[in-house]
Amino acid sequence: MHDVSLRKYLISVEEIYHEGGPAPARTLKRGAALAVIKNPFAGRYVEEIQGFMDDLKPLGLRMAKDLIAAMGGDPKAIEGYGKGAIVGSAGELEHGALWHVPGGYGMREVLGGAKAIVASTKKVGGPGTRLDVPVTHINASYVRSHFDAIEVGITDAPRADEILLALVMTTGPRIHARVGGLKASEIKGEDGLR
Predict the structure, then answer these.
(1) Are the C-beta atoms of 18 and 24 separated by less than 8 Å?
(2) DSSP code of residue 174
(3) Most CB atoms closer than 10 Å: which of 21, 53, 73, 172?
(4) Name one Pfam family in it (predicted).
(5) What is the spatial distance between Cα 40 and Cα 156, in angstroms, rounded to a whole number?
(6) CA 72, CA 125: separation in Å to the nearest integer?
(7) Structure pTM?
(8) Are 52 and 40 spatial neighbours (Cβ–Cβ below 8 Å)?
(9) How many structural domains compose the chain?
């Protein structure tokens, strides 16, 4: 068991009022929760790292709750989500994979029954590295109107011995989404895909 040592925490919400063309019926909110933590495995190879996923679960839950609160407080308003990690240079890509379970668990817990896999990405990089975190619909990964990405990063993170963890959410499809495919209104909810 490892302590989760938090250095920075950031919640950011963007609200889009217009994208050209006709004004949308409602604004679109796109939010990100970022946490910069010490990497307990930095600088050395450790075979057994899986236990750290359990240590990260409370942070994932906190980030998901805080992000929903910042986006208006209604979990039912969230339609898209994703997660990601940037590992500092003294770590390895696999350390970012430790975020898969706690990040997904946190969002699924507060969203109450989201069915789709939580899209994810990760990379190794230094301070100021940016990451495009993919977004998909929370109940059906094939809903094309919700395919998106939210760029995240913090100027001084991650340091070599840190990991930047990210959760992202949206309140709807891209404004003026019109490239066809499965619509949110057509979701069957059988398998998290359709």
Answers:
(1) yes
(2) P
(3) 172
(4) AA_synth
(5) 19
(6) 32
(7) 0.95
(8) yes
(9) 1
